[in-house]
Amino acid sequence: MSKTAESTHQEIHAGNGQGLHLHMRTLHPPVPIPYLTREEMASTARAATARLPGTPAAKDLVFYGGLGALAVAGALEWPVALAVGGATWLVRSARKEKKET
Fold first, then answer.
1. What is the full DSSP assignment across 3-30?
2. CB half-sphere exposure, 91, CA atoms < 13 A
3. What is the mean pLDDT of the segment spanning 27-51?
4. What is the pLDDT of residues 56-92, one digit of tens each?
5. Residue 76, helix vs strand vs coil
6. Which residues contact 81 (CB under 8 A, 6 or more apart)?
7. For residue 63, what are the contacts with CB-CB under 8 A and spacing of at least 6?
8. Are 14 and 20 spatial neighbours (Cβ–Cβ below 8 Å)?
9. Are 88 and 63 in contact, with CB atoms under 8 Å apart?
10. At residue 11, does pLDDT exceed 70?
11. Per-residue confidence (pLDDT) for residue 17, from 0 to 100
C-alpha cells in the first residue's frame, strides 16, 4: 500500500513541473570575420562598377526609386510595380534603339 501512495505523490510532483530537468546543448561554431580596410572596399567597388554599362539618367533613378518606395510602403503591390517598371524599361529601350538607327 505504501508503494502506491509514494507513486501517487511522485506523479503529483511531476505534474506541476518540479523535479523535471531538461538538458540542452548548443553549438557555437567559430565563424571567422574578415577584416576589410577602406582601400580594399573602394577598390572592389570600383572594379564592380567598371563592369556596369553606364549610369542611368536621373529621371530613371527617380522613377524606379519611386516605384520601389511605393511597393515598400504598400501603396502598390510588388507584382504591379514590377510590371510597370518592366514595361517602362522595354518602351524606353525600344525608343533608344529607334533613335540610334
1. HHHHHHHHHHHHHTTTT-----------
2. 7
3. 87
4. 788 888 999 999 999 999 999 999 999 999 999 999 8
5. coil
6. 67, 68, 70, 71
7. 88
8. yes
9. yes
10. no
11. 59
SS3 58: helix
Q: Which sign, positive or negative, has the C-alpha torsion 39, 42, 48, 49? A: negative
Burial of 95: CB neighbours in 10 Å, binned 0-12, 13-18, 19+: exposed
Find cell 517602362 and name the residue.
88
Residue 56 DSSP label: P
Count the Cβ atoms, other than its own, within 10 Å of residue 80: 13
Q: How many CB atoms lie within 10 A of CB 93?
A: 10
Distance CA 31, CA 18 (A): 38
Place of cell 533613335: 99
Q: Are 71 and 81 in contact (CB under 8 A)?
A: yes
- Predicted model pTM: 0.46
Q: Cα-flanking dihedrals φ and ψ of residue 77, to 5°?
A: -75, 150
